[in-house]
Amino acid sequence: MGDDASSPPLLAALDGAVLLLTLNRPETLNSLTSEMLVALDRALEEDAAEQAVRAVVITGSGRGFCSGQDLTELPGQAGDVDVRARLASDYLPVIQAISTLEKPVIAAVNGVAAGAGLSLALACDLRVAAETATLVQAFVRIGLVPDAGATYFLPRLVGLGRAVELSLLGDTVPAAEALRIGLVNQVVPDAQLLAAARELAGRLAAGPRSLGLTKRLFRQSLGSTLAAQFDREADAQAEAVATEDFLEGLAAFSEKRSPRFRGR
Ligand code: T3D
């Protein structure tokens, strides 16, 4: 299941202005194969770039969100695979695509997010978790280092001390604890996860073009100085004031009504 034509490794569905991407290898808790990563990259670079799409939700089918790299594809078991090449060719494009897409991307963490599966969730803009979901920096358990952007995003989300602790110990973090330490933004009852993620995505999808510019600014700020950020904010604001959405925002304010943003 998950790898033949009748059951592709990634499902994509458009729900209004929200693109729902479902990792679809439930028998291995949606472990990441090259085929799945290529499909995910294509969906993020092409489908998500469509004008009609204004927010993206990534989730998993079955009881897991994503168990990370498919261990049956690792070197030693599946031939002499070059890990550097695989990370550069399969993982980096996906993580970059999420990060640079100027539309909100939400991870709906329905079950365990482990290893690079957690990295995938960390790269998203917001994380909504089911109350029985768990998150684990699983790399240490098999003698690897955190990868797929985990050492970049994790300390920025939870602080260096907590990031090191989670990565050295590899302990399972329940959803409630993940919420407490800022690893996820929201925890909801399992049965309400997709509805909650869709509602949040729908709200963001109805937002102005400036959401994408805001995302860009925060991404740039991570390695920036205050002075450089002032410049970038000014550039982005110059773009924002030139949008139809800004005019609509002003009109709605003066007419005392809710704005109808169109994402441009
Ligand atoms: O070269 C490179 O690309 C390096 C890059 C590395 C990036 C990484 O992501 S490294 C980390 C890889 N992920 C892991 O190490 C996690 C492995 N999985 C687990 O530790 C556990 O499965 C979980 C903690 C995620 C969940 O545990 P549990 O008890 O809920 O489920 P389970 O019974 O262990 O798993 C269910 C099935 O999924 C099972 O198959 P079976 O026995 O029913 O036939 C299990 O083997 C399979 N599965 C789970 N994770 C993976 C997997 N199969 C392949 N690859 C997996 N990652």
Q: Please report the distance between the alpha carbons of the first and last residues.
A: 40 Å
Structural class call reads alpha/beta
Number of domains: 2
State the low-pLDDT regions, or none.
Answer: none
* Rg measurement, Å: 19 Å
Name the CATH architecture of the largest domain.
Alpha-Beta Complex
CATH class bucket of the largest domain? Alpha Beta
- CATH third-level topology of the largest domain: 2-enoyl-CoA Hydratase, Chain A, domain 1
> Number of helix segments?
10
The CATH superfamily of the largest domain is: 2-enoyl-CoA Hydratase, Chain A, domain 1
Q: Overall mean pLDDT score?
A: 95
Portion of residues in helices? Answer: 40-55%
Strand order of the largest sheet: 1-2-3-5-7-10
Which molecules are bound besides the chains? ligand T3D
Question: What portion of the residues fall into strands of 2 or more residues?
Answer: 15-25%
Biggest β-sheet description: 6 strands, mixed
SSE string: EEHEEHEEHEEHHEHEHHHH
Shape: globular
Q: Total strand count, please?
A: 10
What's this, in brief?
The protein has 264 residues and is α/β, with parallel strands linked by helices. It is built from ten helices and ten strands.
